[in-house]
Amino acid sequence: MVGLVIRVWGIILSDTISYDSLRGATAADVRKAIRSGAYSKHTAGLAAGKLQCNLAILPEAYALDFLRFCQRNPKPCPVVGVSETGSPYVPTLGSEIDIRTDVPQYRVYRDGVLAEELDDISDIWRDDLVTIALGCSFTFENALIEAGINIRHIEQNRTVPMYSSSLELVPAGPFHGTMVVTMRPIPYDRVADALKISAAYPQAHGAPVASGDPAAIGIANLNAPEWGEPVEVRAGELPLYWACGVTPQNVLLDAKLPFVITHKPGCMLIADVGERDELSNHTSLTSVQQGDYHYA
Amino acid sequence: MVGLVIRVWGIILSDTISYDSLRGATAADVRKAIRSGAYSKHTAGLAAGKLQCNLAILPEAYALDFLRFCQRNPKPCPVVGVSETGSPYVPTLGSEIDIRTDVPQYRVYRDGVLAEELDDISDIWRDDLVTIALGCSFTFENALIEAGINIRHIEQNRTVPMYSSSLELVPAGPFHGTMVVTMRPIPYDRVADALKISAAYPQAHGAPVASGDPAAIGIANLNAPEWGEPVEVRAGELPLYWACGVTPQNVLLDAKLPFVITHKPGCMLIADVGERDELSNHTSLTSVQQGDYHYA
């Protein structure tokens, strides 16, 4: 389907629009393209600086147990937002977001089986649905790169390698399983920095959960990731493993809920808040200006 | 009531036991004293190094909204644990904790009014209750002191001053209100350190939410805190304000739930985990040993 793209002062009218033409576009323009159905592919590298999220949209009856599960497994499941029941808005992600339309590609599961892939869930929306948004690791990757730590899969334009592991999750209600991890090889002399930098992003999975020998965490073959693509680990580098957002997706599947909506891997929700913003009404004081109040 | 204390290798048998005799006691011994009813007073300074928590014990029907409220207001309401419905155990706080007996003094509210103060809630326990444990600021105070930043209320053996403020909370369900804050005066040349150190403890309220002029956040008189005791702010010092755990207590009160249990201020739950432990099954990698796995 070839579409004619007419760009009018921030308005994109098109049947389809390519990834390349959205590179460098503002978050608002990317969202318009997704919302209109003109763009329904992956989001890595788009709307740079905006928080991207994994999503779990599930009936309210399961929401309390899923929040317990996330609280007990904060590394793979860092909660960045929770909607009211039946509402397509998530307060901490910005008022411009509509959960029913703003994800490029949704996946609808019924009883643990993939039933539909849609680019808009307005027609199947229910008033008992709760949306739980979870952070993802794009954020700390940017911070590592800024610190001069090369990220091989980004450099080689591949999807990060993701592996099933033997790391047990703490269960809650119907939710249980083992952790999916990402792997990034880091030079030995930058490992301490990588640990420290990623630890500062708990909403993006935080610090690694393991390092070194893949067999120690139940990974049979680093060259055969279950998701994504393998990258080389060179001499002088240590594999570091971080908790991955595929974990909650798998857990939701395995719970065989009657109805749950997630999304195609890589096709994230682009939120309307900065990826380094505090998701709080009351942001932290990070510095004090000269001439600030002197208590008399 | 005078009790005769017989200390037998970790077992304390007594009608009542004084705060002073518990100073320096192990967490296990303090918990035994609380659980037996022998000690029902404040917990600041006891079981040094163990995480102390604020508690909200409420009917499951309100738990989802309260967790939403905490997620939207993470500074005053940092969640450190959530129980299963009807269970007195909180997985992330250690298996030795029994919520029904391990808090020195409980407060039971019915329809927003204080109905009872008890040292044991086993008799009124219900199978629809969910316990949500929240962190408190004792943790970052220890870190500030270790960094050589004097905490005046601790030095003077007073309760930290706490104030109602005009800072609005983000609502969820029946939960809404304004933030209660603590105030600690910090020398100007240590303010940057105080911000950085406390920011590292999001489970203990994190970095300050404001500084300087109390009127800017709706505080009329620094010498008249609504809770705790005033401390002097000297020349060369800046008042810093942190979110306070009295906030969720007030919010629960104002919501006028049919039934909710909290606790007397200062009489915290002493958890069985270290105050600086990660509350996660999968702790962060913080360093890599020499001779760690070399990928061949």
UniProtKB/TrEMBL annotation, chains A, B:
Coiled coil: none annotated. Keywords: Lyase. Its EC number is 4.2.1.-. It comes from the Bacteria. GO terms for molecular function: lyase activity. It is an enzyme of class 4 (lyase). The keyword Lyase applies. Pfam families: D-Glu_cyclase. InterPro entries: D-Glu_cyclase (IPR009906), Putative_hydro-lyase (IPR038021), UPF0317 (IPR016938). NCBIfam families: PRK05463.1. Belongs to the D-glutamate cyclase family. This is Putative hydro-lyase BCF46_0135. It comes from Litoreibacter meonggei.
